[in-house]
Amino acid sequence: MKKTPCEEIVWTVLPCIRKKLAENLIGKGLKQKEVAEKLGVSTAAISQYISDKRGNTSIFDNKIENEIKKSADSILNGGDVVEEICRICRVVKKEMKMKNIIC
Fold first, then answer.
1. Is-contact 38 70, C-beta < 8 A?
2. By C-alpha distance, which of 55, 42, 53 is closest to 15?
3. Rounded average pLDDT over 32-58
């Protein structure tokens, strides 16, 4: 059975977004625990993201990478994490649909 776009996002894209956000936020000086709290995941999940055990980000192009960097900056400055992740998901869905990667 074909997955719905939302299922595809949850299983494939969301972990990639979290991974890239975690990498960006850690790169800006936050500790794993702080990143976990901001993203609403465990510190173990953050550890798996940064050790390449979760989130294959090879599906992202430069446009999406830049959007994730913008979101990391926004989150670092107190922006709403849910709004930022949803914004990135919309961009990813649009880009992937255009490339026939996702329904």
1. no
2. 55
3. 91
